[in-house]
Amino acid sequence: MPLKSVDLNCDMGEGFGHWSYGDAPDDKLMPIISSANVATGFHAGDPNLMDAVVRMAGEFGIGLGAHPGYNDRQGFGRRTIAAKPDELVNDILYQTGALREFARRHGIPLQHVKPHGALYMTAASDPELSRILVEALQKTGPELFLYCMDISETYRIAREAGQPVVREFYADRDYDRSGSIVFARKMRRLDPDQVAEKCVRACLDGKVRTVEGDDIEIEFESICFHSDTPGALAIGTAVRDMLLANGVKIAAPSH
After folding, report:
1. How wide is the angle at C-alpha 171 spanned by C-alphas 123 and 5, nearest 5°?
2. pTM of the prediction?
3. According to the model, what pLDDT value does residue 20 have?
4. Element housing 12 (H / E)
5. How many domains does the chain have?
6. Cα–Cα distance between 218 and 57 in angstroms, integer?
7. Any idea what the CATH number is for the domain that residue 110 is in?
8. What is the domain extent for residue 52?
9. At what angle do helices 85-105 and 127-140 cross, to 10 degrees?
């Protein structure tokens, strides 16, 4: 069934001090999205940047999410770190708690948690990590949406436990035949209109073309694009405009 409404999320605050990733400033991206995934200090971000992005999300009325990653600034959280699931979940809780305090400071509710990069992909295929993460969220944030892929262990376990969950479609990533995104540490420049057409097709037809050249069915409630993808602002704008032109509303998830 065609989607009449979809969330549009993007990673935010992915810098440190005077350093920033990508070519799209957060204040330019914020008006075109409905949910923001804010870096929480391990792969990127710092207290001052977190505070500024949280305040900005409140000003624009954007759904606020924590975007915790591996403790890997040098690799931007896109390298896998061999650690026990308990340690990784503690890292996630630590980072989420930090962002939640800034959210409280500005009177903004925390909407969701979305692991970043390699940690997201690790959880997707690791039932033990996903289980411990979901169990922790059931105690610390049972109302929080957990963002993940439709085919992931994270989604399966969250659904079984009753944790609110949002499935994602990736605008600026390729898919393989399994239904998983093809993980990339660095992205090439993409054609914004082609990306937007891909998203519209996914929303209206529920299908996406894989790197193997065939179509697979895909289910989701949110579309993600990355602020560090070259031309991110043009991509996000094209996706939003083409969705709206095809009758698909942009809105944050709701319970």
Report:
1. 95
2. 0.96
3. 78
4. strand 5-12
5. 1
6. 29
7. 3.20.20.370
8. 5-250
9. 30
Cβ contact 71:92 at 8 Å: no
Reported as half-sphere exposure (CB side, CA atoms, 13 A), residue 130 has a value of: 25
Q: What is the DSSP letter of 33?
A: -
pLDDT value, residue 185: 63
Specify which residues 16 forms β-bridges with. Answer: 19
pLDDT of 174 > 70? The answer is yes
Q: What is the pLDDT of residue 55?
A: 98
For residue 26, being part of any structural domain is answered with yes
Contact 232, 195 (CB under 8 A): no
Out of 1-5, 115-119, 153-157, 207-211, least confident range = 1-5
Residue in 195, 180, 175 with CA at minimum distance from that of residue 149: 180
**Amino acid letter, residue 102:** F
Asked if 112 and 146 touch (Cβ cutoff 8 Å), the reply is: yes
Question: Which pLDDT does position 186 carry in this prediction?
Answer: 63
Judge whether 130 lies within some domain. yes
162 pLDDT above the threshold of 90: yes
